[in-house]
């Protein structure tokens, strides 16, 4: 704009060239400076085990509630990791409230209770076990929703909704003949569906997704997602396709953004903050094993975040997430395993006692 005005003012061409060069160089330098400042301000994860005892004390005193993922943090598939029960005991003895927040609505509440009783000395409360089906129910009830829901989800997920009085429509689970004449009446049945809810479904198929798509074409129909995991780690070397891809397909074809009531959904975060009367989110520590689900959920919730290495993401892998320029994916702290927290709590307790005795 400046060079155009100078040209109108009949400034000689060689002067204009010099001015343009100066302006371009200034822009490049300013851009480089901003980029440099951005790299300097990149979030740095602290290895909890390597902190000074003073920093560990500060860390432990900075939160009152621990919300923790389960799969990959407390256990993998069947058995709990060694030392998890001891860490839970030490955290509770230190006055921390523990809440168990999973994206797995396939597992039954009886299974959750059985697993958690082993690591909590049979003191877990059902109110402190959270998974997407329970959050969906809370969300719908808070809003007085009483319409029919078309649900893509596991048998247990749908049972939870039905037991809570939610009207559930599902299926078909059986194959449909590959004929347009037979498929159309199934997917375009014009049922009065008020919400489409998508979670993990072992038997998800194309007909279910087509049916969901057509219900969502009615703009007064809600689009709700439970678990958003695109990858399900079921072992050190086995990572399976997750329901996040189902949700993404429906989002793309309908141009609708889902209300996410599993991690890392902001809507889920709001439900939990109301449920547990969280006034200062910075006094909550969220522990997980997956940056895309757990760390991001903690970040958007304004919780402190701790990544454990037992789910497959190690400390050396974090640079990849730093390079994505999404601070919500980068944890505040890292530790090798949830079990390592017990020693940190004990060390801080000894340090505080020693410090008090010196006074």
TrEMBL record:
Q: What does the cofactor field's note say?
A: Divalent metal ions. Mg(2+) is the most effective.
GO CC annotations, alphabetized: cytoplasm
InterPro entries in the record: HAD-like_sf (IPR036412), HAD-SF_hydro_IIA (IPR006357), HAD_sf (IPR023214)
Under Gene3D superfamilies, the record lists: HAD superfamily/HAD-like
GO molecular function annotations of the record: metal ion binding; phosphatase activity
Q: Where does Mg(2+) bind?
A: 69, 71, 289
Q: Which UniProt keywords apply?
A: Magnesium, Metal-binding
**Could you confirm whether the keyword Metal-binding appears in this record?**
yes
Active-site residues per Swiss-Prot or TrEMBL entry: 69, 71
Q: What is this protein called?
A: 4-nitrophenylphosphatase
Question: What organism does the record attribute this protein to?
Answer: Anopheles atroparvus
């Amino acid at each position: 704009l400046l060079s155009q005005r100078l040209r109108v003012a009949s400034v000689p061409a060689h002067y204009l060239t010099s001015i343009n060069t100066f302006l371009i160089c200034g822009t490049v330098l300013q851009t480089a400076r901003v980029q440099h400042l951005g790299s300097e301000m990149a979030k740095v994860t602290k290895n909890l085990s390597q902190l000074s005892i003073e920093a560990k004390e500060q860390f432990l005193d900075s939160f009152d509630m621990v919300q923790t993922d389960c799969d990959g943090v407390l256990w993998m598939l069947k058995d709990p990791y060694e030392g998890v029960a001891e860490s839970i005991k030490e955290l509770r003895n230190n006055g921390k409230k523990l809440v168990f927040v999973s994206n797995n609505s396939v597992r039954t509440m009886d299974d959750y209770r059985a697993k958690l009783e082993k690591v909590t000395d049979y003191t877990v409360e059902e109110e402190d076990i959270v998974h997407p089906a329970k959050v969906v129910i809370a969300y719908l009830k808070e809003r007085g929703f009483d319409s029919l829901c078309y649900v893509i989800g596991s048998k247990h997920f749908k049972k939870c909704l039905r037991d809570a009085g939610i009207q559930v429509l599902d299926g078909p689970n059986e194959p449909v003949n590959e004929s347009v004449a037979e498929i159309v009446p199934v997917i375009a049945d014009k049922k009065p569906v008020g919400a489409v809810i998508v979670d993990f479904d072992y038997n998800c198929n194309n007909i279910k997704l087509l049916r969901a798509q057509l219900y969502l074409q009615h703009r007064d129909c809600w689009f709700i997602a439970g678990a958003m995991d695109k990858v399900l780690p079921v072992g050190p070397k086995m990572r399976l396709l997750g329901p996040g891809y189902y949700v993404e397909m429906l989002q793309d074809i309908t141009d609708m953004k889902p209300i996410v009531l599993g991690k890392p959904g902001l809507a889920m975060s709001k439900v939990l903050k109301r449920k547990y009367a969280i006034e200062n989110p910075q006094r909550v520590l969220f522990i997980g094993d997956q940056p895309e689900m757990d760390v991001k959920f903690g970040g958007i919730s304004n919780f402190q975040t701790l990544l454990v290495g037992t789910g497959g993401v190690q400390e050396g892998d974090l640079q990849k997430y730093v390079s994505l320029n999404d601070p919500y994916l980068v944890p505040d702290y890292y530790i090798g395993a949830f079990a390592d927290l017990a020693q940190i709590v004990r060390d801080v307790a000894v340090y505080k006692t020693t410090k008090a005795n010196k006074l």
